[in-house]
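Question:
Write out your own:
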Amino acid sequence: MNNALRLADHPALAAACATSGPVIPLYVYDNTHDNAPGAASRWWLLQSLSKLDASLKKLGSGLVVRRGTVADVVMDVCTETGACGVYMTRGYSEHDKKTEEYLHDFAEKNGLTCKRYAGRLLLEPEQVVSKSGTPYSVFTPFWKQALSLIDNAVPLPVPQKIQAPVSWPATTSIGALGLEPKPASWAEPIAAEWQVGEEAAIERLDFFVDATMDEYQTARDIPGVDGTSKISPYLAFGEISPRQIWHKVSMHLGDATKSTAALAYLRELGWRDFSYHQLFYNPEMRIKPLKAKFLHFPWHEGTSPAVKAWQKGMTGFPIVDAGMRQLWQTGWMHNRVRMIVGSFLVKDLLWHWHEGETWFWDTLVDADIASNAASWQWVAGCGADASPYFRIFNPVTQGEKFDPAGAYIRSFVPELCDLPNEWIHKPFDAPLEVLAVAGITLGHTYPAPLVDRKKARASALAALASIKD
């Protein structure tokens, strides 16, 4: 049940229950590979597993938890229990594909049923291909094709009962997995921000669709308002399926594709599918640019005070600092601001997008292997259908456009609270008397700008010119 931590719309679980035999729900915590969850995700996982176990127990079942490689643990449990079949949700990374192949071989050699089911995406990679049978590398035609293929099938219900085995195999306690943050206080602000689990996912979706979605098309770009669904962590852990979201939106509107606001929202699910399809066909996407010429881009690499300042939200550019502090405090960042902070790292600072991908992987509660890598490659100009590298976001004008009254900045950069709106996006240009009244001393109470943006832009464009075909 890895990354499918729910009971509703769970094809693999439903198929297992339909055999009328006993079912052993199994979660394997494997932190031995590069896709192991980061710190914020481990905090979420700890809560999610506990919620799932409680839900299973209400149905007369429970969750068996083991630590180790997925293939080895599944084979061990099959051998220990005399299980006659393995039912699993499909993955898309190279690690997932190898695990699935290994389990299929094991099942075949031992006379077991081994079935793999969809459940993480709206459409599988093999379904959305061009007329020539090749995968799409540009999102717009991908999404046009996908819209013609997505149906509005009713999501599967929660099983009424899950038959328990006569004897349960040994299980590790969830607490023994070592998922707790250290120190524990690190996660307290995140815990105050989020409710975890399948029930919380449904509640958040219901609220968004009923109260917020109609304004999504415009509100989604305003970080100072609650204009997005914040459903991404629940999707990342499989506490809700994309099909459940699609169906809920369609039930609310009749035909979601005829509502511009709903279609703008569902398009984000399309981007998530697109990202996973890219990962499926490009297994090295987390480490290798999809545009080959960027292999020779002169990124900075290693460690740097500039990267540390970016991570801590101490760059001297308020919208960037607000975003990075929101990430640290809540485990999440507004999507518009993700683009701004990403552009700042890879273009203004010229640091490798790996630095951003790795930091987000560790600090986001919605860290998702495909979306994280695809989005960082997008902002760095080296991914599929990426934003051109020469399109460099100006953090001042972006802040003025999308946070004009500074509400978002004041929430996360409180030392700037008393600055007038005119200067809150550019305190480095404010008159000294204005800074004095606001209690700000640049370089002391708030950092001076980390870079001269005009020089930084020139350096970025020169770096781009150095790799042109």
In short: The chain has three domains: 1-119, 121-154+198-281, 293-465. The first strand starts at residue 26 and ends at 29.
